[in-house]
Amino acid sequence: MNQPHLNRQLPPLAALRVFEAAARHLNFKRAADELALTPTAVSHQIRGLEQRLGLPLFERHARGVTLTHAGQTLFPAMRDALDGVAHALSNLRPGSHRRIVTVSVTRAFAARWLVPRLGDFAQAVPDLDLHLHASDAPVELRPGTVDLAVRYGGGRYPGLRAEPLMPGEFLPVCSPRWRPADAEALAAMPLLAYEWRLRGPGTPDWPRWFREAGVHPSSAPKATHFSDEAHAIQAAIAGHGVVLASRVLVAEELANGTLHTPLGPVLHGLDMHLVWRPEQDGDDALTQLRQWLREQAEHFLRRHAASPGTRRSRRPRRLSP
Fold first, then answer.
1. What's the CATH number for 169-269?
2. Reported confidence tier of residue 228, pLDDT bands at 50, 70, 90
3. Among 273, 269, 81, 249, which Cα is nearest to 160's?
4. Of 5-14, 76-85, 140-149, 229-238, which has the strongest mean pLDDT?
5. Which residues, in sequence order, are CB contacts of 265 under 8 Å at separation 6+?
6. Does the model's pTM come out above 0.90?
7. Residue 314 pLDDT more than 50?
8. Do 5-74 and 169-269 come out as alike in CATH topology?
9. Nearest by Cα to 276 from 153, 148, 183, 188
10. Range 5-74 classified under CATH 3.90.1200.10
11. Helix (H, G, I), strand (E, B) or coil at 131
């Protein structure tokens, strides 16, 4: 038998909303920007929620925050609840007869690849409203929350459909004013790096790049680390160093000369895949969205086809800008 709603003992909903944003970004400042609050107000709300619950939700570090076990338990429940409320409210608004589809992508992919193409989506598929869910943490594909995801991985997602969208190629890029003669010189440059949620021997990071370049520094090269891949790329554009970036995310800058690739090799990582639930195979709206993403990816890959000088190499060599 269901308990009366009045028996629900919930913390203030404002604090729960602040927690969800902070947990999604793993950054109090970005959560504050999203909610139009100050970072101090976000921190105050989180502290109050932790005191009410009697346990910590975040571990504070010098470079940011991570979720505790309690935070990891609470976050998906709050994320799904708020997504469900947002979806229901969207259906109540005038014009809610229009179909809403939600796609989940990483923050960097959203900012640097998908968002610049949304105008084309509105023209190509005018009868759909696209909701963009940007998060580096994989989300569960559930009715009423997320319909489709673009994921970086091996393509095996139990219980889900998956098809390759774009290859995962990673190459060092920097401002044209940086022109290291070889890999040893590159190791002495300011290196920029970003966090990988899943790490393994095949992770396309700086240690792997130097191994494949045939260079074994006496100590691990120092790097400035960013929690957001897009921020590391922006730092490279600003001339602050060299970043090992996904070709997909820097193709425009490589084409217009804002960035260049000084040396090989190019690292091959995992591919990006379209992922959806099998029961959605006959969903016309999702079929349109998948087709649009395929067409955009195919056009992008034709336009930014890798030149012979950027193919994988075991030894470093200078690449054309």
1. 3.40.190.10
2. confident
3. 273
4. 229-238
5. 209, 212, 213, 312, 313, 314, 315, 316
6. no
7. no
8. no
9. 148
10. no
11. strand
> Per residue in 262-274, pLDDT tens?
998 999 998 999 9
Give the lowest-confidence range in 99-103, 124-128, 196-200.
196-200
- Please give the Cα distance from 56 to 50 (Å, whole number): 5
Look at residue 287 and give its three-state secondary structure.
helix
Q: Which residue has the tokens 């920097």?
A: 174
E strand or H helix that includes residue 16: helix 13-25
- Distance (Å, rounded) from C-alpha 216 to C-alpha 316? 13
Chain mean pLDDT for the chain: 84
Reduced DSSP (H G I as helix, E B as strand, rest coil) percent helix, strand, coil of the chain, to 5? 45, 20, 35
What is the per-residue burial (b if ≥16 Cβ within 10 Å, else e) of 146-173?
bbbbbbbbeeebeeebbeebbbbbbbbb
Segments making up each domain of the chain, as ranges: 5-74, 95-166+271-303, 169-269
CA separation, residue 78 to residues 74, 130, 160, 182, 197 (Å): 6, 22, 24, 49, 21
SS (H, E, C) 45-99: HHHHHHHHHCCCCEEEECCEEEECHHHHHHHHHHHHHHHHHHHHHHHHCCCCCCE
Residue 121 has pLDDT above 50, yes or no: yes
95-166+271-303 has which CATH code? 3.40.190.10
The torsion angles phi and psi of 299, rounded to 5 degrees, stand at: -65, -45
Strand order of the sheet with strand 148-153? 128-134, 99-105, 148-153, 271-276, 161-166
Produce one character per residue of 56-78: b if its CB has 16 or more CB atoms within 10 Å, e if not. bbbeeeeebbebeeebeebbeeb
Residue 95 pLDDT > 90, yes or no?
Answer: no
